[in-house]
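Long-time lurker. I teach an intro course on protein structure, and each term I like to show students one example going from raw sequence to a predicted 3D structure in token notation. This year I'd like something fresh instead of my usual example. Would anyone be willing to generate the tokens for the chain below so I can use it in lecture? Attribution to the forum is fine with me.
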Amino acid sequence: MMISNGIEDEEKWLAEGIAGIQHNAFYLHRALDSNNLREALKYSAQLLSELRTSRLSPHKYYELYMRVFDELRRLEMFFKDEDRHGCPVVDLYELVQHAGNILPRLYLLCTVGSVYIKSKEAPAKDVLKDLVEMCHAVQHPIRGLFLRSYLAQISRDKLPDIASEYEGEGDTFMDAVEFVLQNFAEMNKLWVRMQHQGPVREKEKLDKERNELRDLVGKNLHVLSQIEGVDLEIYRDTVLPRVLEQVVNCKDELAQYYLMDCIIQVFPDEYHLQTLETLLGACPQLQSAVDIKTVLSGLMERLSNYAASCPEVLPEFLQVEAFTKLSNAIGKVIEAQVNMPVVGAITLYVSLLTFTLHVHPDRLDYVDQVLGACVKKLSGKAKLEDSRVTKQVVALLSAPLEKYDDVVTALTLSNYPRVMDHLDAATNKVMAMVIIQSIMRNSTSVSTSDKVEVLFELIKGLIKDMDGTSTDDLDEEDFKEEQNSVARLVHMLYNDDPEEMLKIINTVWKHIMAGGPKRLPFTVPPLVFSALKLVRKLLGQDGDVAGEEVPATPKKIFQLLNQIIEALSVVPSPELALRLYLQCAEASNDCDLEPVAYEFFTQAFVLYEEEVADSKAQVTAIHLIIGTLQRMNVFGVENRDTLTHKATGYSAKLLKKPDQCRAVYACSHLFWVDDQDGIKDGERVLLCLKRSLRIANAAQQMVNVTRGSSGPVTLFVEILNKYLYFFEKGSPQITAAAIQGLIELIKTEMQSDSTTSNPASDAFFASTLRYIQFQKQKGGAMGEKYDPIKL
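-- Reply from a regular --
Happy to contribute to a lecture. Here you go:
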């Protein structure tokens, strides 16, 4: 009878059953206390009759069963004590078989059977065989399942196992194995049959209820694994084939999934390794709805852990060809389960790859084979957009990187980029970032142009727009982070051989040129500095040899650098290009290549004239030009004059007077280089300083006109400091009198009513005067020099 009015009815029936048990248990206890066997059997049979109900769900039936079980334990204690009931156990075994109903009779029989085996008055195997056969009489799924569970429970510690007290003449562990296997087979059939106990519309509910009872069946396999006599041979020849026969023949997805998982979990790893073929052979025969990927993943995980914990067993993995067997089995399963989603197949390959990397890390051919199988599975499909699939593919591609700590190893796998091609643009970028992070984390040096080619093919999602996506669609912060990662990567590409390094630079240049104007400001600078590093390594070499096979020479690299920096004009990014031209000019100065250095300066000036329009950017640029030019010693008189003239000219043309003043006094350093062979033209130094003074004066007047008060004297103090610098360096044109005059000028300005007081400039001037005082007091040549200056 099916439950119609839901949970309330069931609760009522359970309450009635419990009341019946408690009522009979009361009289049973009274009978036991008075050692009355007849009454004890009568009330125990009545108590057990409550288990004959068909109206309870498995969950509620279990509650009832547990109450009965507690009473049976008490009854068993009574049966053991012959002095109390005065009936030999053999007679008792006969006596309980007269109970009126089959279910109470069998429960009582199992209880006495347990005592019978313990008494050793009959061989354990005979009693067990008798009990397991008699239990056939109950074929109702729930009642039969719980009955056999009770039989398994009371017999667990009484099996005739090796070194067990129940192993006697004719009683061997094989009898125990046979008993457990037989009970398991029958329990599994009952469990499977439960699904037909209600209408199809309640299938989900029935499956849930069946799932709650699965451990009753699984316990048998656990008992089998605990039998001492079950060695590898017995397991391979008897246990596994019999269990798998049940699994395959039951044709029930719930049972098949659970029991396969059970086999993998309860039996030892070495048994699985030696019986892989048999175990894997059952997989394609399972129902298509069985979640075989989880089962196989569990098996591979166990074997991986086994290999990791016992390295000495690794030769066995090769001996039994574990990888080949697993790979073939996965192929067959995917073939047999036509409706298996892509995510399922990829998950299997992730597990196989993890297994391979643990067990055969040296076999890159195996790793590539797994990736190849993935490519085959994904071929013909559109770009992956299902997040579950892409997550698994990222896991698949990340596994070799994590294992080898070396992207270079992954670059040798021919199928690696082919798997990446199946990812959508966003995931491709994620994977590219994972690759770059792996290189940075492990400080991996990618050292050949071929490997760089493969690497940049892998990370192309970051280097150029993919599948119609545009850089405009990207989040600005994410875009910057991605491009900065590519920039950092460029510094990890290195080879000691100059020719190979030049090839690497050319390869990178080819790839980043395809990235479009928005990426170039991030990717060009690291490439330029990488090339300059190579130039400095080749210092002193020269080469005018034509042809393809020319060794790397500074001149050749500078030609390439000119092209690379020129590309920034499409961005446009003039300030960055100007900085890079100046870096190249400095490097060509170190290589003693005057025409090349002059050309780079020319390019920098052209950019300054034509592209740098912002006044702040002009100030920064002119100071960079002056600073770089000051360090150049490669130029002849004519070229140097041309460039310094340009620099001073541009300095005086800056928009704001204070900027003009500072740039002009900075130019004074172009005429006095404090090296042994450096230029020392005191006349032109003085000209620059006087010119800056005039500009400072004009700036003061301008402020006075526009605001009605003069600005602070900061510019004058700065110029005074320049005077002191050249005075100390020994420029004859900078005299103590000139310095004295400037000090007086500043003091006058500061005392003027129109001058705005400024604590910073006042402190600056005071500090400068303290320095002069310090030099005066120091004595020696420098003290004498400063002596004429009066403060």
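Some talking points for your students: The mean pLDDT is 89. The chain has 40 helices and no strands.
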